């Protein structure tokens, strides 16, 4: 199963992605993790991404798209995968759809986790990651609203979007996601 997980920073995507990938036995492809690893390793992609990530701006589409293309071509993705952090824009969603169409492996589902902004700010402030200082958090949430919401609308128009309430315990949120998965598989 090929799934895109959508939600603002702090919505619990990482927690839910871990559960989903264990349940479905597919790899978790986090573009944020891929970009941070590229920065740690000092790769060309890492050098290009670093100024964007340190200031809370989105990394250019082409750079992220290239990382994703390389990653989904690996053998462990043949049975499916969960994309987390890509696509973030309608343009990226369109690029992904074209790539998947060329491979004859369409996206099965886009899951969007909704959490109120005040809760997101509380969660992110407690995370302590280097890219989670207050100004960066606010910038990332603004960009999410501007760019990612239209991307979710793109998937809504294609009939693949499922919207999930992200409040409650991780178990409660996962149960909601699982119910949507079961509906798609039925």
UniProtKB/TrEMBL annotation:
Protein name, per record: Adenylate kinase
Known partners and oligomeric status: Monomer.
Subcellular location: Cytoplasm
UniProt region (NMP), positions on chain: 30-59
Entry similarity comment: Belongs to the adenylate kinase family.
PROSITE patterns referenced in this protein's UniProt entry, alphabetically: ADENYLATE_KINASE (PS00113)
Species: Lacipirellula parvula
Listed EC numbers: 2.7.4.3
Keyword ATP-binding: yes
Reaction(s) catalysed by this chain's protein: AMP + ATP = 2 ADP
Role: Catalyzes the reversible transfer of the terminal phosphate group between ATP and AMP. Plays an important role in cellular energy homeostasis and in adenine nucleotide metabolism.
Kinase recorded as keyword: yes
